[in-house]
Structures are given as structure tokens and as C-alpha cells.
UniProtKB/TrEMBL annotation:
Residues 467-525 form a coiled coil. Residues 231-361 form the Recombinase domain. This is Recombinase domain-containing protein. Keywords: Coiled coil.
Amino acid sequence: MSGPEALREWAGPRRIDRAHPLSGPAAHAEPSFIRVAFVARTSTYDQQDPTLSIPRQLRSCHSVLPDNAVIVAHFYDIESGRKDLSDRGRGNAHELFQIPVPRDGGIQNLLDEAVRPDRRFDVVICEDISRVSRRSYTSTEIEHRLESAGVMLICADEPFRLDAKGRRAKTSTQVLTRRVKQGVAEWYVIEMLGKAWDGFETHTEQGYNVGKPCYGYLAKKIPHPVPAKRAKGLKKTRLEVHPVEGPVVRKSFGWRVAERLGYQAIADRLNEDLVTNPPPTPVHPDNAVGLWTYSNVRDMLTNPKHTGHMVWNRRARKGGGKNRMNPVSEWVWSPEPTHEANIDLETFVQAQQIAEQRERSRTASKSRDPQAKRTYRLRSYIFCVLCKRRLYGKTKHQHAYYVCAPKKAWVPEGHPASTYWVREQSMLDGLTAFLAAQVFGPYRRQLLTASLRELDENGQKDRKTKITALRRAITEAETKRKNLVRNLELTDVDQDFVRDVNERRAELQSEIEGLRAQLAKAEDEVQHAPNPGLLYFLPISPIELAELPDELSRKLFEALRLEIHYDYVSRSATCRVTLLGDTIEAVSKTTQEAVVIPFPKQKGPAMDDLHGGTVCVVPPAGFEPAHPPPEGGALSPELRGRYQHRRS
């Protein structure tokens, strides 16, 4: 019968305890030394000095290891500890520094080698668990993967044992300490991010710029308000309008709003004179291409800083955002304008709305494909009433058509299950008749019904009366405020009298501010009120679209805000053109270029007597293109439209 001595002999020095964390293919029961891998991480290279941080972490780990433990491999990264594990260890920031510590790879290389049978280490050490990750979940996952491979993860600032035999070396105190420190590390970084966010919000509200000034502005340096930082020469930045680039911004917004040009079309115009319209300089000047591009124009026309407000957090710079645009609801705006504006807020909003209207459309009627030969005159202007999508151009039997073919998942009720076609010539004939008779015809104003004319005249009169009354009330209130101060100089006063005067001044100031707000609102209503008088500023002339060059016809369509909505059920198309007070000059200019036989201009009121506004011209049912499948006829040449007003 065997006893304890026999058991000890059976489990002798050559028997390997597979549950021991130091066990493995190359391990021995009593190894002469313990092989250790060093793992480290320092924050992004613009926040810390890796040439100091990495060696310091290595020294901290050396100081707590026993004499028989030797660091045989070094793994470290220069990156944020809040990244997902799948994104960790992919950067090359370490190549930018001369770090006096050899590098065998990053965290991914460490995990890969840990599961190999020929790994060089049996223990991994770090200075602090936050150096593995700032997120509890990620650091725990790394710890679990290492332990599953038989590798212990220890920290220099935690209690650990490497000489334990016959039982696990991880103790309950070690687990408690590590979990607490993981929570503290994650809490700390979240708290710091929250405070930094609040700081950036305040920084933005006070009108200070972050980063390189956007195109159209110069950096105005201001001494730092903190004395210690001011002593070091640090400064903050505000924006001031660039004398050369500012006019380019205003010009580009004007083209976008008035002519609805695409980004590339605006870039082409700007490239015609690079002296007057200098292209933007990137953060790294070596990357400059020397001309305007699609993306340059897009960035300029979508930057809200041109409105005079300071805006921050438009793009996601961290957390895997890769510079993507954040939702507008997440932008941080200054409550009031903080610098001189290049354009007003209303113009900026109109420019963004045009982007929505031009979605999936292009300025040119021809495809970007260099092999494309066909031009589609009405590309981007025809919409399906049922599915709300644009019809695209297609050629069959040498004829041009516009096709609606939504995917099966996007076919609404009532929409044909199969593709339907509309002949281009049918659309052009009907559109030509509509424009010639009802937009540029001599009797276009008479087409307005008497009720609409009367409503417009009464509305204009009421608005002018209201504006005049508000201006008079503001003048009277300002006069009262001045007289109050003037009388104060001629009167013996006491404290009660001064208090009464201050209260009265506050009342008058509040009254003036309220009246000014009402005046601004009334003037805005005038600017957007329907105004049939805008028709007087269009020439009277027949238009023949078939004879116009494609570039000129599309320019005319954009100036008129052309929209054609085709209804498959009724086989009819509704055409709408919109005249705006802000764009009437561009419409008139484009129309003068497009006319075939000019007629004398119709007499009308002076431009100074007209307010801004909109006039929408919409023909009723009767604008009916034949529906070919696919060889169709022509639209009815007798098109009797009507004018319908709507708010812009």
C-alpha cells in the first residue's frame, strides 16, 4: 500500500501541473527563471511624451519583479485606451519617436503570440491595468484571453505571487484590487471627457475658434486670459473676414442660392480666375492641388461659421468617427454671432435646402462616364408622384425616355410593379408650350384670378402700414428715453427718484426691443410674401427648348426652380416654376440669354417698389404627356395653366 512518500515520488519534479499559470510546452516544474512579457500603452502622441512614458513604465515593472523573473519581450502602443479591442494596436505612431525600448509589436501581437505553442513568455506585466485599456470590458477581455492561453497578467501596482506551487497564484485581494482600479480608470477618463466637453462648449460660446480658420476668415490672435499661459506666449483665436477670400464666399453662396449650381459647377467657375478666387490652402500645404475641387466648395458652403456664429463639434474626430459629420443636433453653437458674418443665416439655410433638393442629381445633363454620348435635357427635374424618386434617363430605339424603376422594397401602393417609361420629346413639347404661354407670354399677369390680385394688393397695403407704424413707435420710444435722461440733468434728485428713473428706462428699453423684434418679423414677412409683381421683370418672348443648347436650357431650368411631377395613374405631369425676390435678377439674366425672338419688355412698377417673395406657376391637369410603352406621342400643345401662390 502506497503512502505519502510514494505520492511525492509519483508527482516528482518532472511532473507538470497543467493548471499552473506558468505551465506550458517549454515550462519546467522548477524553472531557473520566469519569462515575462512587458506590455505598455501611452496616450496619443500629441498628449504625452512616449520617449519618457514608455521607459518609466518599464522601470516600474522591473522594480517589482523577483530576481528569477526576466523580461524577454516588449509590446507597446501609442494610442487611446478607449478604442475597441479590434481597433487596438493598428497604428504606427511609435515610428515618429526614438523610444529607447525595443518593440516586438503591439497588443494584437501580444495576444497572437500568447496562443502559440512556441511563445517566448509565461507571464505578462504592465505598470497599471489602465495601461492595458481605459475600459473595464476591454481590459477584462484581454485578461481572460491571456489566462485562457495559460498566461498570467500581473500589474506592478497590485499584489501578486509568481512562486506559488500547487495552487493558483491569483488571490482574492488581487482580483478585488484590479476590478476596483478598472472601474476607477474608466470613471476618471469619462469625468475628464465630460469636463473637457463643457470647456469646449464655453470656449465656443465665447467666440473662440478651434483649429485652422475656415476659408474666408483670418485668425485674430488674442492674449490668453490665464496669466500663467499668457506669460508663456499662448493665445486664443477669433475670426475676422479675409479681404480676398470673404468676397469669394459671398459670391459662391450667391451662385448656389440664385442658380442652384452644384458644387463642381461652382468649382469650375471659380477656377476660371484663380487670382480673384484663390483656392483654399490645406492644413498641410504640400497637399495643395492649386485649384478648386468639389470637396473644397462643399466644405465652404456647409460651414456655418460664415453666418457669424462660432460652431464646434461638426465632425467626429475620435471614437472611430474618422472625421464623419455629426448630426446637426449635436453641433455646439454660440448663442449670438461672435464675429463678422460673410452671409446671413437665412442665406446659409437656403443653401443647405438646395443640397436636399439636388440629392442624387447633377448639374450636367450628361453622365460622368467618358464613354457616355447621350444627353438628357430634363435629367434631375422629373419626379414620380407615387414613389417620390427622380426618373433617370435611358435610350431605346434611338429615342430618349425617362424611367422609374424603384426596387421592390420601395414600391409604394398604386405604383406599377414593373418599370414605366415617359418619352422625353413629349415632356419637352409640353414644357415649351407652358413656358412660352404662361411664364414668358404677354398675358401671363392676366392669368392671375381677380381674387388673387385683390388679396395680394390688400396684403401689401397691410404689411406696409404695419411696418410704418412700428418704425414710428420705435422712434417715439427712443425719444422718450432720451428726454428722460435730459430731464434728469435739470432736476434735483434723490434715491427714490433715481430708482424710478431706472425702472422707467428699463421699461422703455424693453419696449424698444419688443418693437424691433416685431419690425424684423414684419420685414421678413414682406420678404417672403407672394408677389406677382416679380413677373414684370421677366422678358416677354417665346421659348423653344429644342433650339437651345443643353447648357443654356439647364441654366434656365435651375434659375426657374423647375420641377416636373409625373403621375403614372392619370398619365399627367405637373410643372412648377418658382420666382424668388432674391433670385429674380439671375432669372432675368438667364432668360435674356435663352430667348429666341426678343419682344419689348412689358411695363411695370419700378424695382424699388417691389418687395421680395415667391411666385409659383403651376398648370392644372391637362398637361398630359402620352405614356408610351415605349413609343409615345406628344403632349397637347394647348396648355392652359394657372398661377398658384405658395410660401417659400
